[in-house]
Amino acid sequence: MRKLCVIPGDGIGTEVTPVAVRALRRLLPDLQVVEASAGWGYFEQQGNAVPERTLELMRECGAGLFGAVQSPARAVPGYRSAILTLRQQLGLSVNLRPVRSWPGISPRPGIDLMLLRENSECLYIGQEHMASADKAVAQRQITRQACAILAQRAAQVVRQRGARRITLVHKANVLPLTCGLFRDTCRAVLATEGLDGLVDERLVDVAALQLVEQPQRFDVLVTTNLFGDILSDLASYWSGGLATAPSLNWGDGIALAEPVHGSAPDIAGSGRANPIAALLSAALLLRYHWALPEAATCLENAVEGFLNDTQGSDLGTQTTERVAEGVLARLELSQK
Ligand code: NAI
Ligand code: MG
């Protein structure tokens, strides 16, 4: 029996995750759901953003759905972002970020790409120090092991998508050691997987320009943590913005689906949070972690059908419930 650990978090995280859980329950009637705490609200009460119990429940279930957490704008002693802790503690070292055109809300049709971002190292190891009063230094870490895991996941995604191209994005002309190790390791692993014929490369600045100019030219993109963070948010513009951008934090036998957006304090509690990013994140869990591609397609088709019929016009004051009802009704129809 499949188990899901739901971590709603703060703000609209608590509003969009229940919608995704409803959809998953409809697709997997046996699904066992447990809820766990994390985030700023929990930290304010308990002095800890991710309790040990949440990590235990995640390990027990092997699959999770995260909403969003709020982070204070200033440094607060003892506080560390809950999602960074979860990624690190659970070994969720790859981040999957699909971007595709959706009817009625995307600025351009015909885009369907998948970005794989390394999720555990690069500049995000947080090793910064003041070398002197006027000099701040940050360290960038790239390991062969993390790049190899990333490339293996990329190979799996390429096969599942029937992809025609894998683009490695780096800046090896300026950073030959770190970006060079990334590029060479990915190339070696993809060659072992028999996929070398599909591999292509771009410098990150060129990739950024092309993602704006000709996004339909990309298929699977593979890159390091910081470049991936920036490029995937940029590319999410084509899917209709943050409210429709899903992601999957992917580890070995464990995965945590997560809408890309944050806790949206400006609209929290108003019923206007769009649950589409959360729904599409659940579809990633179905396709890539639980290996249930038909169920994933069913959910994506329900979202597409809803957007096709409404052309985005239902995204207004009652967004959460209208989208939930619209998508769930289409899921029910497709299962009859
Ligand atoms: P945000 O993603 O929360 O909001 C940006 C804008 O997009 C807001 O105007 C918001 O109303 C809108 N928006 C976002 N998701 C939406 C949805 N599903 N439906 C409709 N509108 C939506 O980013 P922001 O404002 O920079 O950060 C707010 C808080 O969230 C901060 O404390 C930040 O640290 C945290 N955050 C957490 C993330 C996470 O949990 N992974 C990611 C990004 C930010
Ligand atoms: Mg980001």
Describe this protein's structure.
By secondary structure, the chain is an alpha/beta fold. It has 2 domains: 1-92 and 242-336, Isopropylmalate Dehydrogenase (3-Layer(aba) Sandwich), CATH 3.40.718.10; 107-239, Isopropylmalate Dehydrogenase. 43% of the residues lie in helices and 18% in strands. The chain contains 11 helices and 12 strands. Helix 1 (13-27) crosses helix 9 (276-289). The chain is globular, with a radius of gyration of 20 Å. The model has no long low-confidence stretch (mean pLDDT 95). It binds 1,4-dihydronicotinamide adenine dinucleotide (NAI) and magnesium ion. Magnesium ion (MG) binds next to helix 8.
Relevant terms:
about 20% strand, Isopropylmalate Dehydrogenase, 10-stranded mixed sheet, about 45% helix, binds 1,4-dihydronicotinamide adenine dinucleotide
Head-to-tail CA distance between termini: 23 Å
List the uncertain runs: none
- Give the count of helical stretches: 11
Instruction: Indicate the CATH architecture of the largest domain.
Output: 3-Layer(aba) Sandwich
| Structural Rg | 20 Å
Total strands: the figure is: 12
**Percentage of β-strand residues:** 15-25%
Average of per-residue pLDDT values: 95
Sheet with most strands: strand arrangement: 2-1-3-12-11-4-5-10-8-9
Please write the string of helix (H) and strand (E) elements: EHEHHEHEEEEHEHEHEHEEHHH
DSSP helix fraction = 40-55%
The CATH class of the largest domain, by name, is Alpha Beta
Number of domains: 2
Shape summary: globular
Which ligands appear in the coordinates?
Answer: 1,4-dihydronicotinamide adenine dinucleotide, magnesium ion
> Mind telling me the CATH superfamily name of the largest domain?
Isopropylmalate Dehydrogenase
Structural class by SSE content = alpha/beta
Largest sheet: 10 strands, mixed
